[in-house]
Amino acid sequence: MELTKAIIQEAMDKSKKQVISFSGGGDSMVLVDIITNMGYRPELVYADSQMEYPETLPFIREVAAAYGLKLNVARGSRTPYEQWMRQGWPMLGKMAARIWMQKNKDKDFKCDVSSCCRAMKIAPARNMTKYLGADLQFTGQRGSQDDMLRGLRAFKDGAIKYVKADKILVCSPLIGWTDTMIRRYTKQNKLPVHPAKKRGAQTIGCMYCGGGAQYDNSGYRILRTSNPEEWWRFMVTWRGGEIVLALKYDVTQAAARQAIKQLGGLETLAKERPWVFDFLRLNPLAGYDRGTRPINE
User: Fold this and answer.
1) Does residue 125 sit in the same domain as residue 239?
2) How sure is the predictor about 87, in pLDDT bands with cuts at 50, 70 and 90?
3) 125/118 Cα distance (integer angstroms)
4) Complete edge-to-edge strand list for the sheet that includes strand 168-171
5) 168 vs 119: CA distance, rounded Å
6) Which residues are CB-contacts of 15 (< 8 A; sequence separation ≥ 6)?
7) Are residues 57 and 145 in the same domain?
């Protein structure tokens, strides 16, 4: 804790005005509590990616009011679907998507989680930070929480870094924290918890991100039961189900679409066998207990 506070204080000393990038998740909740307990009252910046849980913004407003912090909402200029059509679907995870793209240049669709994060969350939040006249943005990011790529960057850049492209300082004081530390701090200090987290969501962020749609952590499987309308929008309305199956069976989107048509269409498949869209892997990893219906039932 003392190291975390030292990082925060160092960042404060290097900047003139600060904001906290607040997502409503457990990590940023801990960060807000620590910073405010140190006597600071930075404004909050919430990046509305248009893919957030319905309860997120009301929850964030409640937290801002409880801590007496001003809330600013940032939003990108594109819709999620426009972003995916332009630069790629949010599947596999950041590094895994990059590796997949290098090996699948012949496919008729793209996977690019990094560009989606940048366009829909990171850039809007940093633009808002500069608009507010701040030169430092605190984030609740932790080193290896997202994927290996983030862990490598955290090791390379450290807790405080200057982002040349955005011309601001970014500080991540929780860079060395573990899941256990976050849970312990949250429980000991009786911090509010996002409603979706209470319903089973493992992370609070973009509902449609397929970075965790693996056998050990399926965001799509959870979304199907926790927010079925949002699941339907992604899988059927936006036809994300075609991409899920194309990845799972290593085929083109056109081939996946044709196979789905032979099975009665995307709507029929989503109604009658929705679990086929739960995972991006065809077979479970060794030692994994699915605890659900077989995918090819």
Assistant:
1) no
2) very high
3) 10
4) 71-75, 43-48, 18-21, 136-138, 168-171, 160-163
5) 17
6) 134, 135, 136, 169
7) yes
In the numeric block, which tokens belong to residue 276?
């086929």
Rounded average pLDDT over 77-87: 93
Instruction: For residue 258, tell me if it sits in a domain.
Output: yes
Q: What Cα–Cα distance (Å) separates residue 151 from each residue in 156, 167, 215?
A: 9, 22, 21
Do 4 and 138 form a contact (C-beta atoms < 8 A)? Answer: no
**182 and 245 in one domain?**
no
pLDDT tens digits, one per residue of 127-160: 999 999 999 999 988 865 444 444 444 445 578 8
Which range of residues forms the domain containing residue 159? 2-201
Check residues 20 and 288 and name the one with the higher pLDDT: 20
Question: Which DSSP state fits 172?
Answer: -
Do both 178 and 238 map to the same domain?
no
Residue with tokens 């939040």: 125
Residue type, 43: E
Distance CA 88, CA 65 (A): 37
Residue 192 lies in a domain: yes
In this structure, is residue 288 part of a structural domain? no
Q: Minimum mean pLDDT among 4-13, 46-55, 191-200: which range?
A: 191-200
SS (HEC) of 262-288: HCCCHHHHHHHCHHHHCCCCCCCCCCC
- DSSP codes of every residue in 79-139: -HHHHHHHH-B-BS-HHHHHHHHHH-TTSSS-B-HHHHHIIIIIHHHHHHHHHTT-SEEE-
How confident is the model over 169-202, as pLDDT tens digits?
999 999 888 888 999 999 999 999 988 887 767 6
Task: Write out the two tokens for 161.
Answer: 């870094």
The pTM of the full predicted model, rounded to 2 decimals, is 0.81
| Same domain? 92 vs 147 | yes
